[in-house]
Amino acid sequence: MNQAILARNARKLLRNSLVNNRSLASISSAPPNPNSVGPFQVFDRNAKRLQKDRAASRAGGERSRTVDYVRDAVADTMMERLLDIKRKFNVILDLGSGPGHFSKMLEPSITKKVVMLESSEKTLHRDPDSEFDVEVDRIHADEENLLETIPRNSQEAIVSCLSLHWVNDLPEALQPDGVFLGALFGGDTLFELRTSLQLAELEREGGISPHVSPMTDSRDMSNLLGRAGFTLLTVDIDEVKVNYPTMWELMEDLRDMGESNAIIGRRNYIHRNTLAAASAIYKELHGNEDGSIPATFQIIYLVCNIFLASDCGCVKTGMIDWLETCTHSAKSSRTRHRSDQLERCAVVQSEFDSFCNTYYGGTSLLSSGSMTIAGPFSLEVIGSRGAAIAIPASSPLSTPSLSSSSNSAASTTICLTLTPSVVAASGVFAVEPAIS
Amino acid sequence: MSSVPSAAAAITPLRRLAVASTVTCSAQASAYGQCILATYTDVRKDACKEEFARFSACLHQVMKRKW
């Protein structure tokens, strides 16, 4: 007996010493917890904060003000989208507000107050309150630790203008029936700079290190937003192209925007040779006829609503908001898919209407005042082409993604929990069922 | 952290490199860029070594230092 224990201990000791001696293969992070999927850490938040602080204090903020052009243009487009939502807000939370590009455009007819939350203190306080039309509250906090300053599920509207691309993970802060309006950089952003630096590094040094952030693709948005608890969403894509004299001015402006590289494990410097090579490649590969170089900023616009299973009233308003935004974004879209998109909006609308006619006693959710939907059916919005169809569920609703209280009696109020997944990079949206 | 006025910013080493690589040595830069353009589907280390050597020599001359 004792011998057996001794032998086991000896084996354990041996194993431990073996593990300790092996420096080649060691566990570098904590084992994943299967019950909670943690976010993958890509960005160095502290470095980003420092970069933004430096950018905002360079030349007393003047340098930073001169490079507001991209954010101001995007904030302007976002404002159009906010105006589509016919609701007056008490408070809007501007997440990663910067100096308030978006908040400055808010008017008292839209909201009473705006709360700006930003991780960089210098950026947050760059511009005085006199530049804002509505009451401003400034919170200096990290977006990822939002819940330390903002209660969970408490916000009626959250907006974010070009700041989420450096955020690893976001907690849930919207209240049911809340609206999220966001703009973030898409994957094609700065592809010219990315490819030039890659080619230069490859040819000069024989290897690649990430210098331009791996920005999100519109296809990833549904997953990311699903994680954050969003359900109904509209996504569309726009491009802002800016011409610069050379790559050096572009890089300087990016630095002044506080958009320097903040990927974890980045290489902290680029060799002079590589930089010079990249500048030459940029000009030859992407340059304009007049000798300037273009830089593309791809912007993904999102409008989403959040629905909790216990809250059905929001379906109607949510759907109307969604369709309005859908149609509007299709109309204002500058891409070649405009007519396609409009057509799809119309299809979704008519399908939704006919769904309501079929299953809701002839009254469309879009026109009637009644909110509850009774009966054992599910709404399925499907496909990669954005068409919505309603199908009667043959079995009582028991899928976990639909309302929890729905699988008992036929007359129970059910809630439609749509988990749309957004498609194609071309501004086409589609919605996929949450039914597993 | 530097808060230099813009007049002084014009003479930082990086600015000088920028001017050297895009204005003074633009011919060599262009030759190097064209070489990459011709081979960018199959680029490897030192694929355009000669072109870059000429570009680099020009840079060294203008910057009055070697690296």
TrEMBL record, chain A:
Gene3D superfamilies: Vaccinia Virus protein VP39 (3.40.50.150). The keyword Transcription does not apply. Keywords: Methyltransferase, Transferase. SUPFAM superfamilies: S-adenosyl-L-methionine-dependent methyltransferases (SSF53335). It holds the Pfam family Methyltransf_23. InterPro entries: Malonyl-ACP_OMT, SAM-dependent_MTases_sf. The keyword Membrane does not apply. This is S-adenosyl-L-methionine-dependent methyltransferase. It comes from Somion occarium.
UniProtKB/TrEMBL annotation, chain B:
InterPro entries: NDUFAF8. This is CHCH domain-containing protein. It comes from Somion occarium.
